[in-house]
């Protein structure tokens, strides 16, 4: 069946986003003498014409509707890809996807509603665009690069002496804190009242601190010095670190301490929002999250941390899966890690399921550190730290022998469990006529606690179990 691509310019009843359509036309008409801009205007009109046909035939002419639907979705997908690459500030894919989603929810009348498929089509980058589109993309990139260089040159020439006298501290603040971030898939870490201010607030974890201090912290604080090390000695900053071990042992806490110690912004990946039921959408969302962190690092020209908790949810070993989407997620993640490294975005991944991670993903984290249950000295520190913050803990904190006894009883629990048991000991002391917290309160809290000691065999590989066994007495 032949479909006419003649744009219907009069009496249209299109369902597309009228405001966005005007923005598209306005942007493209800035390049009146460029073939690529004129071609894209035609493509936009063709999409609008096809959409008009879809609206008119979706109920009465199924044959025409189906033919037009496939043409529309493919053409719209390519057009959305190019618009998203060329005009970043337009947010074309995101705005158009939301528009079709709203239209689907409002107007859906059959199970095969084209608006639902359009939601994904406009937000999914084509893997193999035709040569014509590649040619347009190359021409557009060259044109915009040249224009950007000319604009930057003109701006530098017109800068006044007064603006160049701005204190460096103020410029840093403007370029970091005031940057608007798309928080759709990442959120900025904001320290709370109990957040660590640096490594001095982290009990134990000496091996992890050593990993951080061995090149990572320096590179985050002084990237110029890190580049010098690479030029002179070939020492390269790790692209990321993988922290693994039982839950509640402090992987998140020490990640926050690193950000504070380095004085760099940290963003948290929103894994729950990245997942999607649409094919390929999860991979696209993951790339968007990385792109946003990379954009921040490029604007500020400062290293940035991207933290990914429960990284196993997107990096499960591919040999164990038959779902192509899971395999594509791993591939996308590996690619994003390389792009992040180039932009000085340092990735921290945490997982409780090290053994389930895809081997390629494990290798991409070129630094790894187990975070296991606390050793005896760390347990004592945690108990004393809790007691030092409450007025009814002053007597017990001065009794070193009692602290050591409590520590032995608490061996095998995670950091988080030790804090919860300490709070339970405080509750028991309160019940005894608001008396001081005692050794017996801790013993009773441990005895009645519902907290469980993690089985390290479930969370650590064999090589780490051997080290743990020698350091803290395995399975006392």
Instruction: Work out the count of structural domains.
Output: 3
Integer average pLDDT? 76
The level-1 CATH class of the largest domain: Alpha Beta
Sum up the overall morphology in one term.
elongated
Based on secondary structure, the structural category is: mainly alpha
Number of helical elements: 21
CATH homolog superfamily of the largest domain: P-loop containing nucleotide triphosphate hydrolases
Major sheet:
6 strands, mixed
Task: Determine the strand fraction and express it as a percent band.
Answer: 5-15%
What is the helical fraction, as a range of percent?
55-70%
End-to-end CA span: 77 Å
Provide tags for this entry:
single chain; Rossmann fold; Helicase, Ruva Protein, domain 3; 3 domains; six-stranded mixed β-sheet; 21 helices; 6 strands; 58% helix; disordered N terminus
TL;DR?
Helix content is 58%, strand content 6%.
What can you see in these coordinates?
The chain is mostly helical and 476 residues long. It folds into three domains: 18-132, no CATH class; 172-370, P-loop containing nucleotide triphosphate hydrolases (Rossmann fold, 3-Layer(aba) Sandwich), CATH 3.40.50.300; 376-453, Helicase, Ruva Protein, domain 3, CATH 1.10.8. Helices cover 58% and strands 6% of the residues. Strands 1-3-4-5-2-6 form a six-stranded mixed beta sheet, with helices on both faces. Residues 1-14, 125-134, 160-175 and 469-476 have low confidence and may be disordered.
